[in-house]
């Protein structure tokens, strides 16, 4: 690394002189750098517009599904007895439901076990369930000197940690005695516990059963809760299920049974849900339009201008979105202007400079029209002309289908208008980068040359100063000394 001290001979700030000379030569480079920044900012705007249009297309795609105009909700007249949840495509209608019994899990208890004894030592406890691996709990592995209290904890831990289908806990009934509680994790008679030799369910066995005092899981000797199925009647039809969440009786409806009793479940079209889908579209449409128009609008400050103020691509997007949404539709059900269904662009605005292109949505008008004739609204949004349709039928194509086709032309990731525009900016920026790189190399070479030239000048001046000093000293030696 070299160290230089510019201006030692000339007393000039040669570094500052070189920087000033280079500032002039860097003007073209700085212009390119600014242009690159401007292009990057414009590209970012188009990328954001493309993202907004993508969000809009997603909302449009939702409204191209007829199922999203058939959204339903379920209501129970007595939510203490049961709750009802309806999903898309659920069967509509009224259903009178009586809950006779709730599904219950099977629960048993052991006898009272004296915790200080060791009668459970070297015993086994087995759990065998159809479709599961048999579990054998061998208490001989318990620590030396383990008491019944320790072994009860061991049995409980083994039951809870393995795929037994059971859950265990322990309660103290006195200072010296404890009881092991066991319950099936799932409800229904199919998950009932049985002693060895039974069929189906969850079979209990092993040498420790008698020592645990488990002798009859069907009576109060050990049973604390009987396994049971849920039984209900739906419009007079008797139904039995193994649990209290039933989703295979009424198509698309889930019933959560809570207690015995009666309730009326009503499943009906939910216009609020449909309106919610429309509002999602409106918000996405307005976001996209605001961004596009905002970059086309002339700033209020007359000394400034938007860089994309007259951009042809943004103008096309703004114009076509307006034309598509305000076209008169001629659906088979007589849909006319969108305003008749609660949609207006720039409602009440008369001055052109104040127009935003945004849609206002009257939810109540829409719901009224939708409830009166759902098919007319669905066709207005989503009517699809048949193959080979004539011009009249084609003119009835749903607005969402027209808008979807246009959005795909703009946002296609391969050859869409927005994609091409963004790629065009990338190409321009790449060219500028290459030019700036070459220019920077030339500038660096020139700066190095100037440094060498000024350094040579300093060396030459230094030599001249040395010669000047020598000559001065020689002349001084030749001059006679004046005597007094």
Automatic annotation (TrEMBL):
Main location (coarse class): secreted
Q: Does the keyword Cell membrane apply?
A: no
Keyword terms: Bacterial flagellum, Cell projection, Cilium, Coiled coil, Flagellum, Secreted
Location of the Flagellar hook-associated protein 2 C-terminal domain:
227-465
Query: Which Pfam families has this protein been placed in?
Result: FliD_C, FliD_N
Subcellular location per the Swiss-Prot or TrEMBL entry:
Secreted; Bacterial flagellum
Describe the location of the Flagellar hook-associated protein 2 N-terminal domain by residue ranges: 10-106
Does Signal appear among the keywords?
no
Q: Could you tell me what this protein does?
A: Required for morphogenesis and for the elongation of the flagellar filament by facilitating polymerization of the flagellin monomers at the tip of growing filament. Forms a capping structure, which prevents flagellin subunits (transported through the central channel of the flagellum) from leaking out without polymerization at the distal end.
> What family does the database annotate?
Belongs to the FliD family.
* Assembly behavior: Homopentamer.
UniProt-recorded name of the protein:
Flagellar hook-associated protein 2
């Amino acid at each position: 690394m070299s160290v230089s001290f510019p201006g030692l001979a000339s007393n000039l700030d040669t570094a500052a002189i070189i920087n000033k000379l280079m500032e002039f030569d860097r003007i073209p480079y700085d212009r390119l750098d600014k242009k690159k920044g401007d292009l990057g900012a414009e590209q970012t705007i188009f990328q954001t517009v493309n993202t907004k249009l993508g969000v809009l297309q997603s909302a449009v795609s939702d409204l191209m599904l007829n199922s999203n105009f058939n959204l339903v909700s379920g209501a129970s007249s007595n939510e203490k007895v049961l709750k009802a949840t309806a999903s898309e495509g659920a069967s509509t209608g009224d259903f009178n439901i009586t809950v006779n019994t709730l599904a219950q899990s099977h629960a048993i208890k052991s006898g009272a076990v004296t915790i200080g004894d060791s009668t459970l030592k070297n015993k086994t406890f087995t759990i065998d369930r159809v479709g599961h691996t048999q579990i054998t709990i061998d208490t001989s592995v318990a620590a030396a000197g383990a008491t019944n209290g320790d072994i009860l904890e061991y049995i409980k831990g083994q039951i809870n940690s393995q795929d037994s289908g059971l859950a265990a806990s322990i309660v103290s009934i006195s200072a010296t005695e404890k009881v092991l509680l066991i319950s099936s994790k799932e409800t229904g008679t199919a998950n009932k516990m049985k002693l060895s030799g039974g069929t189906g369910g969850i079979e209990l066995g092993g040498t420790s059963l008698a020592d645990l005092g488990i002798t009859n899981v069907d009576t109060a000797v050990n049973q604390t809760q009987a396994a049971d199925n849920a039984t209900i009647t739906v419009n007079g039809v008797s139904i039995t299920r193994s649990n209290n969440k039933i989703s295979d009786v009424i198509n698309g409806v889930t019933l959560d049974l809570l207690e015995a009793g009666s309730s009326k479940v009503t499943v009906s079209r939910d216009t609020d849900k449909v309106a919610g889908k429309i509002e999602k579209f409106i918000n996405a449409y307005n976001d996209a339009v605001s961004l596009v128009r905002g970059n086309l609008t002339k700033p209020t400050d007359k000394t400034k201008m938007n860089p994309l103020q007259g951009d042809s691509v943004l103008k096309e997007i703004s114009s076509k979105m307006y034309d598509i949404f305000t076209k008169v539709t001629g659906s088979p059900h007589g849909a006319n202007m969108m305003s008749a269904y609660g949609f207006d662009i720039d409602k009440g605005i008369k001055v052109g400079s104040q127009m935003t292109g945004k849609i206002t949505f009257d939810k109540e008008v829409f719901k009224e029209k939708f409830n009166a004739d759902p098919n007319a609204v669905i066709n207005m949004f989503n009517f699809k002309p048949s193959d080979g349709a004539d011009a009249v039928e084609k003119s009835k194509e749903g607005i969402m289908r027209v808008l979807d086709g246009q959005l795909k032309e703009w946002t296609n990731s391969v050859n869409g208008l927005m994609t091409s525009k963004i790629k065009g900016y990338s190409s321009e920026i790449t060219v500028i980068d290459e030019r700036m790189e070459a220019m920077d190399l030339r500038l660096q070479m020139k700066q190095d040359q100037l440094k060498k030239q000024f350094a040579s000048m300093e060396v030459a001046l230094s030599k001249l100063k040395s010669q000047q000093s020598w000559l001065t000293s020689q002349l001084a030696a030749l001059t006679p000394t004046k005597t007094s």
